[in-house]
Specification:
Length: about 130
Amino acid sequence: MKFEPETDVELQTRYGAAVEETIDAREIRAGKRAPPSGERKHVFDHFSGLRLIASRETDGMSTFTHYSASMHPENDFDSFHEFLGFIMDHIKNLRGAPLQGRVNIVTQRGIVHILYDEIQSQIDLNPPGNPLWN
């Protein structure tokens, strides 16, 4: 999909629609449903060059918000920690609040996947003072 950056206000206005429907991730893996990355309502291109894809998904056991992040064009960060902080700042701005508590992070082929389970996060909190989530 073509990279088409929008203002923060435009992105924030669209965010609710992206996470409104719960998508069954098992259907994506089985090839029965196209991934959210192919639907504009899930794609959030920032003028900073960051592309976030946001969707609400279930794996049959839990429901979580799935964020995928990549840079267009690729950018040089001094460390993965710096890049992750950059991503988390953009997610915080997009959703209007930081991700609190448990966040699972996976990298695959240069794309960072962040899985956020709001229910579990209320139970299993990260230590206070973690700079990525404060």
